DNA sequence: AGCTCTCCGTACCGATCGGTACTGAAGTCG
DNA sequence: CGACTTCAGTACCGATCGGTACGGAGAGCT
């Protein structure tokens, strides 16, 4: 913590760590945490195991960093949606973002935060809980946003921001599952539209 | 196929195959297909690997049989819901059933058909596709049921049974993900209620 | 009894898992 | 240049993966 910038002594690394992390994220996204072997990961990253361990720690650390990158990249729509002026716009943008992110051509179908690890064996419990916390954090932010909307009169006073946040999150999660099963972008956008027809 | 009943020659098996399959189903439900090792499975089943292979084939066959059992057991609410007289009752029973099955005390949280395998490595693709087909089959049945409801005048003529079926399925899948993340039965039932507030 | 067939426990198979030690090359400094 | 440091590749680690060969034990039949 004393010196955040360390002088580049020695041979500099011969690969782009950002690019490598991006590739790793895609592999985790497609195959899940347990389903992605180090061979799969390093193969896609274009580096050897040694380089991966030196640069990222271990498999679990790599997944954490990949999840951070996912949050800042494909899942950045969440933060953008939360900043919109009305609760209805927030909900609509969140679901539209989930549909878009889960059906982006060239990217794996679905959501890393869901299919990265839903059920896991002994070794994958930590990551499973990490993802559960990650999803729950998104739901909590939405809850806070909807509570504010009630305070501001944007949502009617009898609206329950807790249940609404859980509802929107549930639909978004369901969209991810549907996308993983092959549903198309248009089909899922129709679902998102239906889900908001009853907005208070 | 010529003789469906084969005489019980030789030593009869010393364990209850139904009970063993039930235990295996629970392990798959809790840990997913790839996350459940043969050691986990046979340990919970109370038999050895040899007995398992003799009685069920291999791991993939065991999963198939466990999924069948899941469909006839915890997921039997689907067939019951489809037989209800009105589309609204069908949808409500389906979501309530998903909530109940995903939050049954003493059973793993969530739905085997979802968390059994959403994303998988090389070896788990077959099972992943099997589950995707399984989910899609449920959606198709719901689609048929809603189309019939439109024909019968139970649903308004402008209702789109395809989108409605996809919507209900999506919410049900989302409920499973939420349950896997620790959501309670009451919270999810509230979500199910909200999801049906706009029913046509 | 004696035969036959199956069950079930052990011990083992090659492959792969995540992770590491070691080596030689290659870049950056004095 | 020469010292230093980190790179990347190979070869390997013990553990575990799904799956099997084998052999003694036990139950049903004649």
Structural summary, described in words:
The structure is a homodimer of 200-residue chains. The first copy, chain A, has 200 residues and is mainly α. Chain A has two domains: 15-59, Homeodomain-like (Arc Repressor Mutant, subunit A, Orthogonal Bundle), CATH 1.10.10; 74-195, Tetracycline Repressor, domain 2. Chain A contains ten helices and no strands. Chain A has helices spanning 17-31, 38-45, 49-56, 59-72, 77-82, 87-102, 112-115, 125-151, 161-180, 185-195. In chain A, α1 (17-31) packs across α2, α1 packs across α4 and α6 runs antiparallel to α10. The model of chain A is unreliable at 1-7 (pLDDT under 50). Chain A binds a DNA duplex (30 and 30 nucleotides) through residues 7-15, 37-39, 47-51, 53-54, 58-59, 123.
List the helices and strands and how they pair.
Two copies of one chain form a homodimer.
Chain A: H1 17-31, H2 38-45, H3 49-56, H4 59-72, H5 77-82, H6 87-102, H7 112-115, H8 125-151, H9 161-180, H10 185-195
Helix pairs in contact in A: 1-2, 1-4, 6-9, 6-10, 8-9, 9-10
Chain A binds a DNA duplex (30 and 30 nucleotides) through residues 7-15, 37-39, 47-51, 53-54, 58-59, 123.
